[in-house]
Specification:
Radius of gyration: 48 Å
Number of helices: 9
GO molecular function: actin binding
Strand content: under 5%
Protein name: Spectrin beta chain, non-erythrocytic 4
Largest sheet: none
InterPro entries: Spectrin/alpha-actinin, Spectrin_repeat
Keywords: Actin-binding, Repeat
Order of helices and strands: HHHHHHHHH
Helix content: over 70%
Shape: rod-shaped
Organism: Eudyptula minor
Length: about 325
């Protein structure tokens, strides 16, 4: 049993052999106590004085022989355990490699099936999931690094043929490298999609603001007197300031578009959208200038009416005073 060359062909078999070997070691330990007791009893016969049933030298030789055999048995048991533990380490390494390959295949399938989303919300959801996957990748990378170190240790012992170990380590390293490349590419595509949908969302917000502002600056309400027109003019000047503040955002659209991925920036729809925003902003700015001029003209008219009205009141007062005047 102890000189057997059967070291198992997979991890479960090695574990089973180690359990059996443990039972054998326990049996040897039990027999050791029995042998020591028998040897001690036998040596007493070599120490008798007078009548001796056997030659003391034969007894000592026999005791030494049994003790030597027991020691050799212990050495064989220790050697067998070391070989089995090395075998377990080897098959545990191969099992870790297989688990790593299975994990890599699973992630490759997930990445192959993943899209980059159809709107900003879906892209953000996919980005968060991808961040979780990157965390898993980091944890698995650390485990794989430890497994590779154990493989190097097995190779350093030179107890097993290095061919299978080195080939397996090379395969797993190549697959891991490919997985990291695919993960990086997917992350890049997600970022490009995120940039595009953020650009689209910001453009839509800008268009909505410009449309609302256009309705405001194209209003035909110019007030009905000096006071109301002045109030409208103050509000309009605030709107004009906001329009001017948005000029930089409109001018930056071209630069933002140039930073997008080719597949996004070369789309006809997005280019048309940018042109529409620029044209709409130009119309808003132009109408805002016209409305400000019209409000100023209306204010000048109402002020003239106010001055004319004041003159009329003054004239009426003087007429009434002259009519009531008694000339002596």
């Amino acid at each position: 049993l102890l000189v057997s060359k059967d070291l198992g062909k997979h991890l479960l078999e090695v574990e089973d052999l180690l359990q059996k070997h443990g039972l054998l070691e326990a049996d040897i330990s039990a027999q050791t106590e029995r042998v020591q007791a028998l040897n001690a009893a036998a040596l007493k016969f070599s120490e008798l004085e007078g009548y001796q049933p056997c030659d003391p030298q034969i007894i000592c030789n026999r005791v030494n022989h049994v003790q030597t055999c027991l020691e050799e048995l212990g050495e064989l048991a220790g050697k067998r355990r070391k070989e089995l533990e090395d075998s377990r380490q080897l098959w545990a390494f191969f099992q870790e490699m297989e688990e790593a390959e299975a994990w890599i295949r699973e992630k490759e399938q997930i990445l192959a099936a993943k899209t980059c989303g159809r709107d900003l919300s879906s892209v953000l959801t996919l980005t968060n999931k991808h961040k979780s996957m990157l965390g898993e990748l980091g944890s698995r990378r650390a485990l794989l690094h430890q497994a590779m170190k154990r493989g190097e240790q097995i190779l350093a012992k030179k107890r097993f043929s290095p061919g299978g170990i080195q080939e397996k380590m090379r395969e797993v390293r190549l697959r891991w490298k490919k997985l990291e490349e695919v993960t990086g590419l997917h992350q890049q595509r997600l970022q490009e999609a995120l940039n595009f949908f953020q650009f689209s969302a910001e453009t839509d917000d800008l268009v909505a603001w410009l449309q609302d502002t256009y309705r405001i600056v194209s209003s035909d309400d110019f007030g009905h007197d000096d006071y109301s027109t002045q109030a409208l003019l103050r509000k309009h000047r605030a709107v004009v300031e906001e329009v001017e503040k948005h000029r930089a955002a409109v001018l930056a659209l071209r630069k933002q578009l140039a930073l997008l991925a080719p597949e996004h920036r070369q789309g006809v729809d997005v280019q048309i959208r940018v042109v529409e925003v620029e044209q709409l902003y130009g119309e808003v700015a132009e109408v805002a200038v016209l409305r400000q001029q019209w409000l100023q003209d209306a204010l000048a008219v109402y002020r003239m009416f106010s001055e004319v009205h004041a003159c009329e009141v003054w004239v009426d007062e003087k007429e009434q005073w002259l009519e009531r005047m008694e000339v002596p």
